[in-house]
Every structure is written in C-alpha cells, then in structure tokens.
Design a protein that fits this description.
The protein is built from 21 helices and eleven strands. The protein is an alpha/beta fold.
Length: about 550
C-alpha cells in the first residue's frame, strides 16, 4: 500500500506553494507610471514588493511548522517567538541607526515650544535650512524612476546648482543690512532646482539693485510662511512684504490648520490652532521620520533604484497609448521642435473644484484668514503687503492643448488621483477646463474685496509657454531658469508699475534712483498709480 502524507504535510505544501504563487501577482503599472512611482522588476510597486518579501517568509515559516515532527503547539510557539524577536530586533536596529544619520535637510521647531514665538502669538511650525551652508550639485531633468513613460522625451537638461544659506538658514547668498522687500513662500519662492543666481528673487536683486530678503523654504505652507515672516521678517523693516501662494500645494488640507473662530484672529494664539495631536500620532510621526532617515532604509532605497528597478524596465505596458498616451504633454514650438511637460494625476485634480463649494470650503476660509493676518501684521508695521499667485504646471499647460487631449485619456489619467472623477469622460473634460481657474478667480475676488495689490502669474506663464519658453521642467513641477526669468520680469513690472514705476526702474538700472516709491507723510506707501488694478501688465490684477 502507498503510504499517504499526513494532513499536516499536505497543508504545509499548500501553504508553501501559496507563498510562491503570490509572486505571480502584479501591480497596476499604468497607475504607477501615472503617479511616477517606483516599479520593481517591471511588475511590482514598492509596497507590493516589500509586502511579498515580508509575507512569503511568514508563509514558508508556517509551512515549516506544519511539516515539523514537533507537536503543533510547540512548533507554533517556536515559530512565533522567532518571528516576533526577529521583527522587533530589525525595527530596533533601524530606529537606532537613524540616530547616526547626518543633519536633516531642514530645521523645524514648533512655535508653541519657543518663548519668542509664543510672545509673538504664533502657532504651528517654523522652518528653514541649516544655516551658513553651501551646497554644490547638479539637477538633471529626467524621470526620477527607471520605469517611466514609454520612450520618455528629453527634459530641460542639466542645471549646475550652488545653494547658499545665510546665518538664519534662508537662501540669501549676498548679505544686506537694508531690505526693500521680504519674500515668503515655498520652493517656488526659494528657487528649487536652480542655482543661487537663477532664482527670481535673486534676478530682482541683480542687476535691478533691489534689496530683497528671501524667507522662502521648500516643503512649507501658508501658516509657516506667516510664522517665518513674523519671526524673522518683521524686524528687517522692509518697505514691502510679498506673500507667494502656490496653488499646487498650498491648498492641501494637510498644510492648512482648522480655521480660527470668527471672533478671533490667527494671532490670538495657540488656543485657536489645532489641538495637540494624540500621543499615538506623535509617536507614529516620530518613528516614521526616524525610519525615513535611517541609513538602513536609505540603503534599501538605493538597492531598489540600482538593482530592482532596472530589471525588466523596458517591458511593454499594454494599454498605455490608449488610456493616457497624451502624457507627457507636448507643446509644439514655432521652429518645429517641442517642449514636454509631465505632471501627476493629483496635481490635475487639485484644480477640479466646484466654484461655490471652493469659496465656502474650510481650506479656502482658513487660507484667507492667514492672508488677512499677514496683511494686518505687515500694515501694523507700515509695510505694504503684496500677494503673488503661482500657478501649477497643469494650470499653465492644459489650456494650450485642450483640443488635442482625448476625453477618455484625460479621464483615465485622472482616475489615478487620490480623489478621482465621478463624471463620465466627456463631461469630466468639459468641467475640468471650466474649473481650471476656480482657485485663482477666488483669490482675485479676495484681492478685490480687501483692496490688496495682487499679481496672478498664470497668464504670464501661459503666454511665455505658448511662444516656446520652457517655463517648467519636464519631469519636475518647478520653474526652469527661463521660467524664473519670466517670473522676475513680471514681478518687476508689478513692483515698478505704471509710468512712474518704469521711470524708477530705469533709474535703478543706472544706479541713481530710489529703490522703491517713498512713503507719504503718514509713513505709508502711497497707492499704486491708476492702472495697476487692470491688465496693463502681464498677469496684473
């Protein structure tokens, strides 16, 4: 008679082959490419792959338990003890290794934990780079991931970068004692992926002889802009303060705290800010940061990039051309060439808002509270507040190719955003292009109602892009050196507006003029000449 295998061993074989079969599953490659996320071995997302790496040994270990001649309770207890101790030891090793990591790219501290910030009635985070640093690097405009768009077109090229920080950790390569202008904002204000002399703030400084102090810092939001301005900028005594708001990130719920009550301003203190997060969340954030900074996890990321991603990276992707072949977006040039612009689905859908719902949303109401507070703090010191609206790449590029993008492709692409469209393709495309200007139009209405001087850069960048200037990098969301030049010229026209402003700008270039319009007898800067509120200048409001 043939001796049959015991039931435990049959189960062990089934569990073993189940662990093996899991490797035959595949991630949604179209989703990964649309979001520009890592593709490992041409098949898996990063999360999918590392889940398999974790689950497979567990299943095979359980199969070994079933195959073992030991009693099932004893074999299980040995397996659980070994598994738990291994996982805990690995996590502890990763956490402890994070303590050996070099200095962080940015320095952050909570206003609630700083005595001076509490005296200034600030809430939230202050953020800057490490002070007195000089970095030299090269940025190459190409897809970050090895497995990207099929046959990706060339980007802007390589940009050699020098990045210098001052004693406070902000990007001001040339020290100055007097400041006509203080600028706050995020990476679009600081000049991401361009060198010190290529950012628009520096282009205003030289050769225009405008003394400007840049408080911009990447990875921050409107509340941090306000905090940095009040903490560092007010004491500089500028004539004007410029608040640059970037629609691509600044309206995310994660960077906007809950709106203050109607009867109290943002400056009334910590009581109006979000309540302290629970201990579990604080511990979770702490360990999350530690794991990201660990040299061990950094080594795994480098291993993925150098070894796992290139494997099978040229594998064909069925359905790409039909479902989202318009990406990267092609802009034809007058000379017959082309520039290309890519962006992720989430950046597209951040423009997709019903106008009535957006104007009354918590996000916009909180944003305006911060803008109002920035204006009030400025005016209390006799500083003129200025507001500049920086559009995202899809906002600038899409109107130029509206007729060339099939509705089905735009719809399929948008479905990979965290907030996907519910409308059918044709209706979605129609609404998408109707809603591109919802956020900026709401911003303009706020400017008009508050009588603040504002500049919308959207038409300026749109016009420059249409005539062949590569204003944004192909594979990065930021402005190129050429885009920074366009922005600098638009902001110069905005600052030195109308005929009087143009004469002063000419005098400044010749080195014999006042830097900015002088204050009147009350100490306030006089209103702009008639016409600045119209469209006499690119993007002016």
């Amino acid at each position: 008679m043939v001796k049959t295998l015991p039931l435990r061993r049959i189960s062990a074989l089934l569990v073993f082959f189940a662990g093996l079969a899991l490797w035959g599953t595949e991630s949604d490659l179209l989703k990964l490419i649309a979001r520009q996320e890592q593709v490992l071995f041409g098949r898996y997302s990063q999360g999918h792959f590392y889940a398999l790496v974790l689950i497979t040994p567990v299943l095979w270990g359980f199969a070994a338990v079933l195959w073992s001649r030991l009693s099932l309770p004893r074999a299980l207890s040995n397996f659980l003890l070994t598994s738990v101790s291994t996982i805990v030891s690995l996590l502890l090793f990763i956490y402890l290794s994070s303590l050996l990591a070099g200095p962080a790219r940015y320095v952050e501290f909570n206003a609630e934990e700083d005595e001076r910030a509490r005296e200034l009635k600030l809430a939230g985070v202050l953020r800057h780079r490490p002070p007195n640093e000089r970095y030299e690097l090269t940025f190459v405009d190409q897809p970050e991931q090895v497995r990207s768009y099929p046959n990706p077109p060339p980007g802007y090229g390589a940009v050699d970068i020098i990045l210098t920080t001052d004693e406070h950790g902000f990007r001001n390569p040339v020290p100055s004692e007097n400041h006509d202008l203080v600028v706050v904002g995020d990476s679009f204000a600081v000049g991401s992926n361009v060198s010190d002399d290529q950012g628009w703030v520096e282009l205003l400084r030289q050769p225009r002889n405008l003394s400007a102090y840049n408080l911009g810092v990447s990875g921050s939001g409107p509340r941090t802009y306000l905090n940095n301005f009040v903490y560092y900028g007010l004491d500089l005594g500028p004539r004007r303060a410029l608040f640059m708001i970037y629609e691509g990130n600044d309206f995310k719920r994660g960077v906007i705290l809950p709106a203050p009550s109607r009867t109290r301003s943002v400056a009334d203190g910590v009581a109006d800010s979000a309540p302290p997060p629970p201990l579990r969340k604080r511990l979770g954030d702490h360990f999350s940061i530690a794991f990201k900074r660990s040299p061990i996890t950094g080594g795994f990321r480098e291993l993925s990039r150098r070894v796992f991603e290139p494997v099978n990276a040229t594998r064909p992707i069925p359905g790409y051309e039909n479902k989202m072949g318009f990406m990267p977006v092609r802009i034809d040039l007058p000379d017959g060439g082309a520039h290309y612009y890519s962006f992720e689905p989430k950046r597209l859908m951040r423009l997709y808002h019903d106008p009535d719902e957006w104007e009354t949303s918590d996000i916009w109401q909180t944003t305006t509270a911060i803008l109002d507070e920035f204006a009030r703090r400025s005016e209390d010191r006799g500083i003129e507040p200025l507001f500049v609206y920086a559009p995202s790449k899809p906002h600038v590029v899409l109107p130029l190719v509206m007729d060339r993008i099939p509705a089905e492709q735009l719809w399929h692409f948008a479905r990979y955003a965290p907030r996907s469209p519910s409308d059918q393709p044709e209706r979605f495309k129609e609404l998408m292009f109707e809603r591109l200007d919802v956020q900026v139009n709401t911003f303009k209405s706020w400017c008009k109602s508050t009588k603040h001087r504002c500049l919308d850069l959207t038409p300026t960048l749109n016009e420059a892009t249409s005539r062949g200037v590569q204003t944004y990098f192909t594979y990065d969301q930021h402005w190129t050196p050429d885009g920074n030049r366009i922005v600098a010229d638009a902001i110069e026209a905005f600052l030195f507006s109308a005929e009087d402003g143009r004469q002063q700008a000419d005098a400044i270039r010749q080195g014999n003029g006042n830097r900015l319009p002088s204050r009147d007898a009350t100490g306030r800067i006089p209103p702009a000449p008639e016409g600045i509120e119209g469209h006499d200048f690119p993007g002016g409001l």
